[in-house]
Amino acid sequence: MAKYLADELNAKERADFENQLVDDEQLKLELEAQSLIYDLTSENGSVMFNTEAAWNKVNRRTTKTRVVPMERPRYSFLKIAAALLVIAVAGFLVMNNKVEIDSSEESSSLEFTSSANSFKEYNLPDGSVVKLNAKSSLKISSDFGDSNRTVTLVGEANFDVVKNENLPFIILAGNSKVKVLGTSFNLTSYSDSDIELNVTEGNVEFSSVKNNGIIEQVAKGEMAKMDKEGQSITKDLIKNVNFSGWWTRKFEFENTTLAEVIKNLEDAYWVEIEYNKEIGNCPITGTYENKSIKEIVDLIDITFPNIEVKSFKENRIILDGKKCTN
Is 125:145 a contact under the CB 8 Å cutoff? Predict the structure, then answer.
């Protein structure tokens, strides 16, 4: 094999060796692995390998297997060998349903993410469903659903957790810990803000990872907020029903200030809305369902003659106007 790689075989020896390559898959993989070492340690690292010519030579010397050459550019033998070796190993792992996991956190976990301007829904291995808001990520371990149901959240997500009394579902988010057996809730945890929990079904245990004495039971229809340092929790009834508007696309406002409406819309549609502070106190009452951000802004514009849409470009909107009189 070493002589073959160094091109030190005579014509008969090379022909015999290439015939063995066609018949022996294991030998072929070994050659590919050895070629990596050879090219990495060779003084001439720019040797080019004409794959089409090589396969044609192998075809002419054996009738047992016909290899059909493909039109392709010339690549360094190192790149070809590396690609083939990776494909071979990946195929072996898939066929045998194995994944090599080492002790590092990065290689023993799976990460789910969303883009900067849309949410994404995932089905977890235990059957639970998670919707990730924009710019969010969720990590689970490779043995999730078997020995644990622990996840790590950065950003915002809506959880619909399958009940399992023997294996609690645990979410680590910032300095908070959420523990449930099976329920539905919305959790927001960004590094620059407090952690907010809104429960829509069942009961949720909400606690601090910084202080064991800080813990609350939050039931359906309730919300809780923890400061980002994990030192306090406040609990109340859900008053802003629009916390889930980013995925339900339904908003209900009753005498709500325009400033609060704008915050809801920015969070749900991933836009930036700049406005004159004088119009921030204008009250809005109404329901918007399955409407685009442009449709909602146009309705606001129509509702308030004193408000004007100055600019609407991609994800940035500018509103101007005068203070509302009532």
Answer: yes
My answer on whether 194 and 131 are in the same domain is yes
Q: For residue range 153-175, what is the model confidence (pLDDT) as tens digits?
A: 999 999 999 999 999 999 999 99
Distance CA 214, CA 190 (A): 20
CATH of the domain at 305: 3.55.50.30
Structural domain boundaries, residue 202: 109-239
Reading the block at residue 73, the tokens are 């550019």
| pTM for the whole structure | 0.65
User: 313 forms bridges with which residues in the sheet?
Assistant: 316
189 contacts 176 by C-beta, under 8 angstroms = yes
List 186's β-bridge partners, or say none.
Answer: 158, 198
Question: Do 121 and 218 fall into the same domain?
Answer: yes
Lowest mean pLDDT among 7-11, 198-202, 230-234, 276-280: 7-11
Is 130 contained in some domain?
yes
CB atoms within 10 A of CB 124: 21
* Residue that is written with structure tokens 């235990």 in the block: 126
Residue 93 sits at φ, ψ, to 5 deg, of -65, -40
**Domain identity same for 123 and 210:** yes
Cβ burial, residue 187 (10 Å; 0-12/13-18/19+):
buried
User: Could you count the other beta carbons within 10 Å of the beta carbon of residue 6?
Assistant: 10
Task: Give phi and psi for 114, each to the nearest 5.
Answer: -125, 165
Q: DSSP assignment of 7-63, as one string?
A: T---HHHHHHHHHHHHH-HHHHHHHHHHHHHHHHH-S-TT-EE-HHHHHHHHHHH-S
Q: How many domains does the chain have?
A: 3
Whether 150 and 174 share a structural domain: yes
State which amino acid sits at residue 317.
I
